[in-house]
Amino acid sequence: MFEVLPQLAPDPILGLSAAFREDTNSAKIDLGVGVYKDEQGNTPIMSSVAKAQTILLERETSKTYITPQGHQGYIDGMLQLLLGNQSGVLLADRVAAVQAPGGCGALRILAELLARCPEKAKVWVSDPTWANHIPLIGSAGLEIETYPYFDKAAAGINFDAMMETLKQTGKGDVVLLHGCCHNPTGADLTNAQWDQILVLAQERGFLPFIDVAYLGFGDGLEEDAYGIRLLAENLPEVIIAASCSKNFGLYRERTGLAAIVTADSKTRKIVQGQIQSVARGIYSMPPSWGAALVDIILADNALKTEWVTEVNAMRNRMQTLRTMLVERLEKNGANKDFSFLNTQKGMFSFLCISPEQVREVRAKHSVYFVDSSRVNVAGINKNNVDALAKALVSVL
Ligand code: LMR
Q1: CB 13 near ligand 1, within 6 Å
Q2: Same domain, 84 and 160
Q3: Which of 1, 95, 218, 239 could be 224's S-S partner, Cβ–Cβ 3.0 to 4.6 Å?
Q4: Among the atoms of ligand 1, which is closest to the Cα of residue 11?
Q5: Residue 330's domain is classified under what CATH number?
Q6: Are the C-beta atoms of 359 and 369 separated by less than 8 Å?
């Protein structure tokens, strides 16, 4: 049966982790998969999460199924985090949501929901976008198109070209936007640009689909929600996929949220049934542990304050690492201005070097990052930054 299937190339991101593990060079540097690392290169359990785990061990008395939609406390807490305490769409009972197995699970549920609609949606994704967006959404049978987003030569967003392309959209088109900390480029829309996207969505009638996996890693938990809240409060329908992998460090617990702002409360009930039925047909019921932890943290003032402090510390550290890398590149004689890295946000940046240069630095210096030139900024530390800068300068 299976021998006729083709051998696939390794996943562009996960394949790097495997290659890194196999590399015997003790000076190897991993800037591949998007996982936060501390100064020692570890990904520890966040302190607020560790405390919540102690509470949950006491509190959890059964391993029976949780409900099909997931922990309601988690869903409510996450929706408030994303949409704000005073959210009009929450008060109006217009948001359908389920706990999902990770941000990927959320993206897939939402893509399957779109595929159920009689009007076959075309999904517009940024060029470039996160590599896994295409299979997650495309495998639901949806047509995918790209809109221009990042101009490598100018190392910034090509907003005019993006808007020109989105002017061609209409009802039935879905536009995937990164809520903050664009993956892979780190180049984010300004608030003024979000304002213009709202006006265009109102004019053209396209449906925004916002993927938010790095809330709090850009400018702050509240600041990073600007675009989501603006569109959610001012459009009849918005789709949101959220992840707790990075900002709660719950990667392996697969903790995400699929939410849909609907036109009215009656439609909310229909959509709620539909997304639960989609989930039932894929994995039946979500895993419990990660969402139960987030529920505990968001419901407890002291734990929430501790978590916010930890998110702020991670964000500030990544910003410091950007500055440090830019300085060291300059000090080591880079013939290219990398100061744009300081204006980019979140865990990732595009170095804007060629795939050949990326492969050369990997082969000669065991520095691992994605061929597109995306680096995981959190993989940099005081011990490896000099070697990294020298290695990069050597291939420029
Ligand atoms: C990344 O972009 O590196 C992360 O979101 C991990 C993944 O699954 O690709």
Answers
A1: yes
A2: yes
A3: 218
A4: 9
A5: 3.90.1150.10
A6: no
Question: Domain containing 241 — which CATH number?
Answer: 3.40.640.10
CA dist., res. 192 & res. 171, Å (int): 24
Ligand 1 pocket check for 36: Cβ under 6 Å: no
Q: Report, as an integer, the average pLDDT of 20-37.
A: 96
**Structural contact between residues 268 and 67, judged by C-beta atoms closer than 8 angstroms:** no
CA distance 386 to 390: 6
Active site annotation includes 246: yes
Tokens matching residue 37: 């690392």
How remote is the C-alpha of 143 from its chain's centroid? Answer: 21
Distance of CA 37 to the CA centre of its chain: 17
Give the distance (Å) from ligand 1 centre to CA of residue 86. Answer: 32
Q: Candidates 14, 126, 130, 348: which one to mutate for ligand 1, based on the most atoms within 8 Å of Cβ?
A: 130
Identify the residue whose C-alpha is closest to ligand 1 atom 4.
34
Per-residue pLDDT tens over the stretch 347-391: 999 999 999 999 999 999 999 999 999 999 999 999 999 999 999
Question: For residue 246, what is the DSSP state?
Answer: T
Judgement on whether residues 34 and 60 belong to the same structural domain of the protein? no
In the predicted structure, residue 120 carries a pLDDT above the cut 90: no
Catalytic residue among 28, 37, 51, 246: 246
In a domain, 185, yes or no: yes
- Asked if the model's pLDDT at residue 119 lies above 90, the reply is no
Ligand 1 pocket, 129 CB below 6 A?
A: no
Please choose from 13, 108, 371 the residue to mutate so as to test ligand 1's pocket, defined by most ligand atoms within 8 A of CB.
13
Ligand 1 atom 5, closest CA: 34
- Position 309 in a domain: no
pLDDT in tens, 226-252: 999 999 999 999 999 999 999 999 999
Q: What is the number of structural domains in the chain?
A: 2
Q: Which of 30, 211, 224, 295 is catalytic?
A: 211
**Spatial separation of the C-alpha atoms in residues 29 and 361, rounded to whole Å:** 11
Any domain includes 307: no
CA of 264 to the centre of ligand 1 (A): 34
The answer to whether residues 53 and 192 belong to one domain is yes
Task: Say yes or no: 196 and 235 in one domain.
Answer: yes
pTM beyond cutoff 0.70:
yes
Residue of the CA atom closest to atom 1 of ligand 1: 34
Residue 120 lies in domain: 49-302
